[in-house]
Amino acid sequence: MCQTGNYDYLCKIVCIGNAGSGKSTLVTSYKQGKFTSHDEYYRGEPVGIDFVVKTIDVDNSIVKMQIWDTAGQERFRTITRSYYRGANIILLMYSVLDYESYDDIRKLWYDSVKRSCRDNGNKDAIIILVANKCDRNDHRRQVSTELGYQLADELDIKLFEVSASTYDNVDALFKYCAKCHIQQTTQQIRNQLCSNLQFTKQPQQPQQHNKQNNRFNLSSCCIS
After folding, report:
1. What is the pLDDT of residue 42?
2. First-to-last CA distance in the chain?
3. Which of 21, 27, 53, 145 is most exposed by smallest CB count within 10 Å?
4. Could you tell me if residue 204 is inside a domain?
5. Which range in 3-12, 72-81, 200-209 is most confidently predicted, on average pLDDT?
6. Domain count, the chain
7. At what angle do helices 170-198 and 23-32 cross, to 10 degrees?
């Protein structure tokens, strides 16, 4: 983990899903680098803290991540718009021990997230499906890996199976989030530069009376 206060990229990550899917434990465990219960992490802290910050080094770039939990609002099946505003990554999370939490991704959360991101001007937010509590492979498991991939294919998003309690695949999930943000931000900057160049006029040549093409040809510089 990078200890510096400086960073190259700021990435806002929002965790969404039914109550009990393990969002808070995932967030606090990642912050600590080991399994940490939500109650243990926030013991003695002011009420109302709903996000943690962690800075990491990814491919020689410093990424500062703000990871937001929904602070119990999912119990009312609605999330305040402020959580979505400026979000770069949305983690749609369900528990493999609770089929309803899995089914509600399709029935409730996915469309709600897409609509809210569009309304808040960040329609390009990257959505990732997260199956939590995957260390449980006994009779209590209600959602198989196969069902997880079926839903990911249906929604055309990537699936990560993790376990907040054993810390399996947690680092890999957030490193993937950071890489996605870097790639998307870099592409957006390139696209903006090309767009600006398209509307930049060439300087007029003195004493020339014939009309010139005042736009650059960007067929070789724009990246789709």
Report:
1. 47
2. 33
3. 53
4. no
5. 3-12
6. 1
7. 90
Domain-embedded: residue 205: no
- Picking from 161, 150, 47, 162, the residue whose alpha carbon sits closest to that of residue 103 is 150
Separation in Å, CA 145 to CA 17, 140, 154: 18, 14, 14
Domain span holding position 160: 9-188
- Give me the mean pLDDT over the 159-168 stretch: 94
- Asked whether 102 and 109 are in contact (CB, 8 A), the reply is no
Asked if 129 contacts 152 with a C-beta cutoff of 8 angstroms, the reply is yes
Judge whether 215 lies within some domain: no
User: For all residues of the chain together, what is the average pLDDT?
Assistant: 82
**What ranges in the chain are assigned the alpha helix state H?**
23-32, 38-41, 81-84, 99-104, 110-119, 145-155, 170-198
Tokens (6 digits) for 135 = 């260390």
pLDDT for the residue numbered 19: 87
| Domain CATH code at residue 67 | 3.40.50.300
Residue with tokens 């999930």: 173
